[in-house]
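Slide 14.
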Amino acid sequence: MDSAMHEKIVAILSRANDMTLATVRPDGYPQATTVGYVNDGVTLYFGTGADSQKARNIDLCDKVSLTVNLPYDRWEEIQALSMGARAARLTDSKEIAKVGRLMLKKFPQGADFGPEEADSIALFSVKPVVVSVLDYRKGFGHTELVQV
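Slide 15: predicted structure.
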């Protein structure tokens, strides 16, 4: 991936708050849910209930897909990302602390969580493998596929 495309992906990730994350359920069907996230470059991080369905799904299969969309008023303004990625539950205390700081900066309301609530949350990293960059400003349906 060239640096201009990397910067474009990071810019979209940095301007959005939510992603739709699809995990693989034990029965093989996808499960899509919306979650808030933070990013450090092209790596995304999100938190969820430690025993939630999506957490259990990722523990069984680390392959995920996701979309991130910027707000738009007209179709020709659409800018979005669609990714195939690998997700992993965070266990390293330094990485967890770093992600916690990123989350509090982006979502200050997270400071309202008490220690007992924080203990029931699991943090996950999402590292893209392939990214489809949608930019309808370059024409209806314009996408560029990028290997990470």
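Speaker note: Helices lie at 3-15, 53-60, 93-106, 115-118.
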